Amino acid sequence: MKTAALLALCLLGPSPVWADARPSGELTVALSSFATEVLDPVLGGHGVKFYLALIFDYLIGVTPDGQLSPDLGIATAWEPSADHKRWTFTLRRGVRFHNGDELTSSDVKWSLLRAISKRSTTGYAGVLRALLQDIETPAPDRVVIVTKEPTLVIPPYLSRALSSEGMILPRKYVEAVGDDMFAQKPIGSGPYRFVEQVTGSHVKLEAVERHWRLGTPKYRIVTFRVVPEEATRMAMVRRGDVDVADVSRDRVREMERAGFPVYYRNNDALLHLWWILPWDRVPVRDKRVREALNLAIDRREIAATIFGGKAEPAGVPFGLTWGFRDVRWRNAETDQYPFDPARARKLLAEAGYPRGFPISIFAYQLPALPEGKEMAEAVSGYWQKIGVQPKLIPVDYPAFRKQWVDRAAPGAVGYYNLPNRDWIGTYTLLEKFAHTPSKPTDTVADPEIDGMLEAILRETDREKINVFMRRIFARLRSEHYGVPLVYLHTPYVTSKRIAHWNPGSVMLDLNIDELAAQR
Amino acid sequence: MKRPPVVSAAIILGFVLLALLADVVSPGDPYEQTLRARFTPPAWEAHGSWTHPLGTDRLGRDLLSRIIFGARVSLAAGVVTVLLAGFIGAGVGLVAGYHRGRVGAILMRVTDATLAFPIILLALILAVTVGPSFTNVVIAIAVILWARYARVIHGEVLALMEREFIAQARVIGCSAGRIIVVHLLPNTLNTLIVLLTLQVGYVIIVEASLSFLGAGIPPPAPAWGSMVAEGRDVITTAWWVSFFPGLAILLVVLAFNLFGDWLRDVLDPKLRQQ
Amino acid sequence: MARFLLTRLIQSVATLVLLSLVIFVLARATGDPLTLILPMVATEEDFANARRYLGLDQPLHVQYLMFVGKAAAGDFGTSIRARRPVIELLRQRLPSSLALGAFSMAVSLLIAFPLGVLAAVRKGTALDTGAKIVAALGQALPTFWVGIVLIEIVAGRLQWLPAGGNDSPAHYILPGFTLGWFVIAGLMRLLRSSMLEVLDSDYVKTARAKGAGEPAVVWRHALKNALIPVVTFAGVYFAILVTTAIVVETVFAWPGMGRLAYEAITARDFPVIQAVVLVTAVIVVAVNLVVDSLYACIDPRIRIDPRRP
User: Fold this and answer.
1) Do C142 and B108 touch (CB under 8 A)?
2) Separation of alpha carbons A396 and C263, rounded Å
3) Predicted confidence (pLDDT) at residue A439 exceeds the cutoff of 70
4) Does the beta-carbon distance from C281 to B124 stay under 8 Å?
C-alpha cells in the first residue's frame, strides 16, 4: 500500500504548492465489534459515535477530555434564561452540508425533533421528550430550546459527550430523499463524507476539502472495519493494513514488545456486578451478605491477572470517576474493599448463613469485555472459598438482560462494563440503575436514593446537585448496593506510523479527529 | 489396510480408560483456579513446575487434569451424539426403505430438508434460545446428523428389498415390524457400525467449532473443544493452552477414523464407496 | 430423464416448504430482538411502538404466510438490527460467500484430485503415506484453529499473505484454503479408495491383459468410474462448506452470509436469520439437485428405477 502511494506520487510529478495541504493517504481503524451498524443517528447511533461524529457535527462539541466547547460544535455560545427554562444557542455561520446546503437553525430544530420522535432509539430520547416543551428559531443563527421544568441538562445532552441526539442533520435533503434513503446514504456537515458501507465489514469515509472543525483533514480516506477475531486484527496491524485497532488486555504486552505504540483510555469503564431484584426472598437482602460477597473478592489479583494489570480495583457502586471529578467526590481509602475472606465468612454466619447459600451467576461476554466469562468464573471461585455455592449460567447478554428486566431470577448476579461519563451521564445512569420507579432496570430499590435522584432533577443549583450526588454515592457504598469490581483501561494498538494520539475520555468515542487533523 | 489397527485401538482404549478412571489418574482438580498461576508453562520450560506438568490455563487451572477429565466430556459428547443420531437415522432409513410409497417419500423429504440445514446455525440458535449446555450440543448435532445415516441406510434397504428372503418373508405373512427388525436391521448393522465409528471424530471437531462461536459445552466444563477455543488468543504466547487439548482431539479423532476404516474393510468392503 | 428431473424438482420444492416452516419457528424462538435495539431507558410504550413499527404484533400464522409469500417474491422483510431491507444485506454478502465457496471448492479439487489419484496409483509408497497423513490431519483439526494458526504465522509473522476482509485476490488464499481443508481430506480419501477399487476391478485387469497402455487404462476408465462416488458426495461436501463457512468468515472477517447469520442470531434479528437459512437451504438443495442429475447422467440405472431417493 505504501509503495503504491509512493509510486503514484512520483508519477504525478512535482506538486503545486497548495497540493501539500490536500488530504491524502488512508487511515484504517479496526475494531472487534460495532455496537450497531447504522448510518442514521436516531437509529441507535450512540453506539457508533466514533464514525458518526466524523460524518455529522454536534450542536455542542467537546474537547477530548469531555469538556463542552464552543469551538468544536455548531453552537458558538449558549446560555440559559434566569429561570433555566429557556436555553439560547448562537450558531456558527457558513457551515455547509456535504451537498452544499447551508446549516441553519431550521436544521437544528428539525434534527432535534427527529431525535426525540417515536422512531428514535437513541440513548436519551425518552428523557429529552419528557423535558422539551418547544424549540424556537428566531433567526437563522439562533435557536431557543424551551423546557417544561428548569434544568441544567440540555447542553450536555445535546453534546458529543453523551449520545447522538445533538447531531445536526440536513432537513431539506432528508425530506427530499426520505428516511430510508438517508439511512443508506447519509449526508452531514462533518469533516468526512460518507462513501460506502458493507455491513459486517466496513464503513468508508472521504475527507471534505476544508472543514471548520479540522481545517484540511490529513487523510483522504478513513475506513472503519469490524474484525472480530483478535489474531486477524493483530496480523493486520503487523502488516500495516490497519492503523488503529483495539487489543485485548492479554495481548497488549506482546504488541508492545514488538514495538507497536499502544495508547490507553484509562478508566474507560467500570465493571460492576449487581443482584437481580426483588431481594425479599434471597440472602442478599441482608446488608451483611452483600458486604461479605464484596469482601470475598481479591480485586487486586483480578486486576493483575485477568485484566493483565490494565485495571484498578473499584469500591463505590456505579462510581464513574469522570462523574466523581465533576461532583467533587474524593475517593477515600476506606471506600476500597479489602480482601478479607475471613471477615466475609463471619458476616455470612452472623446473617444466618454459616454454610453459605446457592447463588447463580450469569456469565457472558460483552463488546469491550472479552474477559467477561473468565471474570465470572473467577468471582465464582472466590465465592466458593467462603462457602457460597455459585452456579455459572452461560448466556449471551440479550438472554441475561431478559432475565434481569423480567425479574425472572431474583438474587442472581449480572454485570456490565459501564462506560465512564461525566456527572450528567452518571446521573442518567443512576436514574436507570438505581431508581425504583424507573423499573425494570432498577438494581437497588432504595427509597432514600430515589428521593435524592428526584430532587436532583428539580434542582438548578450546581452545588446543591453535587451534594446530592455525593450523598448518593456514599449511600450506595455504605449499603453495599452491588459489587463494583474494577475500573478498566482499554488499550488500543496503532501502526508504527502513528506518532501520537490521545484517544480521549469521551463516552463511546475515540477522538479520531486528532488523528485526522493536519499536523 | 487389512492389518489389525493395534495403535488406533490402543489409543481409543487408552482415552476411554482415562475417562473412566479420571478421578484416580488425574494429578489435580480440573476446576480449581489459582489466578496468580495463570498461564504457567509446561514443566520442562523455564518458569514451569511439576505441579502442573502441562502448564495452566487462563484461570490457573491445571491443564493435564482438565485434559484427563475432558476425555470424559468429549468422548461422551461424541459417542452419545453419534448413538442418538444413529438410532434415529437407522429408524428413519429402515422405515422409509421398507414403506416405499408415500410414507417413504415423506420421510425422505424430511431427511433432505434436514440435510440442508447447517448444523452450526442450529446449534447457535439453540445456544441463544435455551442456553449452551452439554445436552443442547448433543441434541443440536444429533438432530441434523441422523439425516446422513438415514440416507445411507435407506439406500441399503432398497437394495436389500430386492432380495429373495425378503420376498419370502412377506409371502409367509411376516408383519412389517418383524421384517424390519429381524431381517433388514441385522443386514444394515455393519454399515451403521462403520458410519458411527467414523463420525465420532467429526462430532468432537464440530463441538470445537461450536465452542469457538460460543455455542459449545460451556465453561467450566473441561471439554477439549472449548479448551482449544479459549486458548486461541494466546496461541503465540501461551501455546500449551490450545496445543495439548488440540493434540488430544487429533489423536482421538485419528484413532476413531483409522479404526473405522479398518472396520469397513473387514465388515463390508462394498462400503468403501461411502 | 425429464420425468426424473421433474420428480426431483417437486421433491426439492416440498423439502424447501418444510424447511421454511422450521426456519420460521426457529428464528422466532430465539427471543425478543427489541431488548437489543432499544436503549436501556426505553419504556413499555417505546416497545409497543417499535413492535408495531416492525410488524411484530401480528398473529404468528399471519406472520408466517407473509414471510413465505414475500420470500417467494424475493422480499425478506427488513432487518431489525440494521433497519435495512434484508434483500439488500443478502445482495451485499451472498456474492462474497459464493466467491469464497467456489474458490475453496476449486482449491480442494485441484489439490485432492491429483493427490488422491496418485496415492491410489502409487499405493504403498511414500507419496501414499504422505497423502494419508494429509487426509488424516485434515479431518482431525478444528477449522478455526487451522485458520488462526495460518493467520498468526503466514499473515502476522511471515507477512506473505493478507488476512482480514476480501479486498484483493490475495485475500482469498488463506480463508479459501482453511475452508477447503476439511473437504480436501475427505475428497482425497474418497478418490483414493474408489480409484483403488476400480483399479482392482475385472475390467481394468482385462484391459491391462489386452495390453492397453497404463496411462490410457488409468485415465480413461478408472477415473470415470472413480468419479461416481465423488460426485455423489460433492453435494454433502458442499453442505459442509456452507456450514464451516461461518467459522472461517468469523476468523478472517470475511463479509459473507455465514457471519451475517451469526450476527443475526446474536442480535435476534429473525428476518435476517430466516432469510439466510432459507437462501442457504435453497442453494444446498439446488446443488443436490444438480448433483443427482449428474449422477443420473453417469449412472443410467437410476433414471429407470423410480424408487431411488
Assistant:
1) no
2) 12
3) no
4) no
Distance from C-alpha of C206 to C-alpha of C199, rounded to nearest angstrom: 11
- Could you tell me which of A50, A69, A54 has the C-alpha nearest to residue A211? A54
Contact indicator for A193, A206 with CB cutoff of 8 Å: yes
Of residues A38, A228, A441, nearest to C253 (C-beta): A228
State the pLDDT at residue A370: 84
Tell which wins on pLDDT, B50 or C74.
B50
* Per-residue pLDDT reduced to its tens digit, A188-201: 999 999 999 988 89
Cα–Cα distance, C271 to B184 (Å, whole number) = 44
Domain range list for chain C = 89-267
The CA distance from C295 to C229, in Å, is 9
Which residue in C88, C157, C259 is closest to A200 by CB distance? C259
Q: Residue A350 pLDDT more than 70?
A: yes
The per-residue pLDDT of chain A, averaged, comes to: 89
Residue A394 contacts B, CB cutoff 8 Å? yes
Residue in B closest to C150 by C-alpha: B235
What is the per-residue pLDDT for C41? 54
SS3 A134: strand
Q: Supply the pLDDT for residue A57.
A: 95
Q: What is the pLDDT of residue A10?
A: 46
pLDDT of C229 strictly over 80: no
> Which candidate from C35, C42, C50 shows the least CB-CB separation from A398?
C35
Helix segments in chain B, DSSP class H:
6-20, 22-25, 63-98, 102-115, 119-129, 134-161, 164-172, 176-178, 185-213, 224-230, 240-267
**Predicted local distance difference test score (pLDDT) of residue C306:** 39
Q: Where are the alpha helices (DSSP H) in C219-256?
A: 223-251
Domain extent listing, chain B: 71-273
Q: Which CATH class is domain B71-273?
A: mainly alpha
The overall average pLDDT reported for chain C is 79
CA distances from C19 to A383, C69, C250, C267, C274 (A): 46, 15, 25, 22, 10
Residue B137's Cβ-side half-sphere holds a number of Cα atoms within 13 Å equal to 28
Strand, coil or helix: what is C240?
Answer: helix
CA C72 – CA C66 distance, rounded (Å): 10
How would residue B274 be classed by pLDDT, with cut points 50, 70 and 90? very low
If contacts are CB pairs under 8 Å, which of residues 1-60 in chain C contact chain B?
Answer: 11-12, 14-16, 18-19, 22, 26-27, 29-31
Contact B219 A394 (CB under 8 A): yes
- Cβ atoms within 10 Å, residue A309: 12
CA trace torsion A403, A404, A407, A408 (10° rounding):
20
The rounded distance, in Å, linking the Cα atoms of A248 and A233 is 11
Phi-psi region of A29 (alpha: psi -120 to 50; beta: other; left: phi over 0): beta
List, in order, residues 6 or more apart from A117 with CB less than 8 Å away.
A42
Which band of pLDDT confidence, cut at 50, 70 and 90, is reported for residue C308? very low
pLDDT of B83 above 70: yes
CB spacing of C162 vs A239 below 8 angstroms: yes
Q: What are A377's three cell numbers?
A: 468464573
B22: which 3 cell numbers?
479420571
CB contact under 8 Å between B232 and A363, yes or no, is no
Amino acid at B25: V
pLDDT of residue A337: 94
Residue A448 cell numbers, joined: 432514600
Superfamily of domain C89-267: MetI-like (1.10.3720.10)
Question: What pTM was computed for the model?
Answer: 0.86
**Pairwise CA distance, residues A485 & A471, whole Å:** 21
- φ, ψ dihedrals at A207, nearest 5°: -70, 145
Cβ contacts of C247 on chain B, cutoff 8 Å:
120, 209, 212-213
